[in-house]
Amino acid sequence: MNAVEAIWTEKYRPRSLDEVVGQKETVERLKAYVKAKNMPHLLFAGPPGIGKTTATLALCRDLFGERYRDSLLEMNASDERGIDVVREKIKDYARTMALADVPFKIIFLDEADSLTPDAQNALRRTMELYASTTRFILSCNYSSKIIAPIQSRCAVFRFRPLEEMEIEKMLERIAEKEKLQISEDGMKAMIYVSEGDMRMAINSLQGAAALGKKIDEQSVFKASSRAKPEEIEKMVLYAMKGEFMKARDALDRVMVNYGMSGQDVMLQVYKEVAGLDIDDHTKVMMIDRIGEYNFRLSEGADERIQLEALLAHLMLLGENSKK
Asked: Which long-range contacts (CB under 8 A, 24 or more apart) does 284-291 make?
């Protein structure tokens, strides 16, 4: 566990469903299960860092009290993903009786979309056989990777990326307790970097705090290895205007100053395209080319050559749009 996760786990992780940030509708449904002291198997789906694990632990604490760990088996399916784990470890735990006053235990499978198809098929039978003593909570980024028979056995909860205000409140709370000063542009930078992911926002705060107690835009972008949006926009506009060497120099500065990989630069270029003051047809052509060059990078092509080729293509698009 790294320093960021340790701080989050020990000091700032919500201890009950009432403290969970965001996901209001989901939390209300989970509270109903706590009140009834009964629940079906659950499937939590959504992008990383938005509260799936936190909601699970808060639910267990509200159900079982402070000794909730006695009634919870927490596993990461990306580490233990084979059929043997389901047949042995999970099955052995599922068949034992509950110790608390709630008539069931909980098995929490994080990153369940990493389970092999064989393991998932074995799991669905275990979920049926031991439903009287054990409830399963499966957490995943992509619910489409969970086989249909398991999805049909679960109540599905769709978690959404967190709102900017929700992330800002949490960062302000941490900054107050850690005696950090966050400037207005520093807060905006952390929200930009996080993209609705609370874990990433806290990571960027922790990284910037290592550089000093005053958190500003510059320290956030340096700590998170991300360029300022205006720097990426300027690089793209240079290319669109036909100033290829200036665009190339801007690319140099971004990669050297922030230590960004080619994939990072490509993703930020994609993110900035929507805000450019150009016609939709040109934006479509740009996104099409970005997708092509991103695929080439993922296949192992030289990142510098591909990024410069993208800038060259943007220059050609810019020239065509003037005609």
From this structure: 285/317, 286/314, 286/317, 289/313, 289/314, 289/317, 290/266
CA distance 201 to 4: 11
Together in a domain, 186 and 150: no
Q: How far apart are CA 135 and CA 157, in angstroms?
A: 15
pLDDT one-digit tens code per residue, 245-282: 999 999 998 888 888 888 889 989 998 888 888 888 88
C-beta of residue 164 within 8 angstroms of C-beta of residue 191: yes
Tens digit of each residue's pLDDT (9 = 90 or more) over 119-159: 888 888 888 888 888 899 999 998 888 999 999 989 999 99
Q: Is 106 strand, coil or helix?
A: strand
Domain that holds residue 92: 3-158
In the predicted structure, residue 6 carries a pLDDT above the cut 50 = no
Final residue of a domain: which of 102, 127, 158? Answer: 158
Shared domain check, 102 and 241: no
pTM score? 0.79
Domain match, 22 and 154 both? yes
C-alpha span between 61 and 68 (Å, rounded): 5
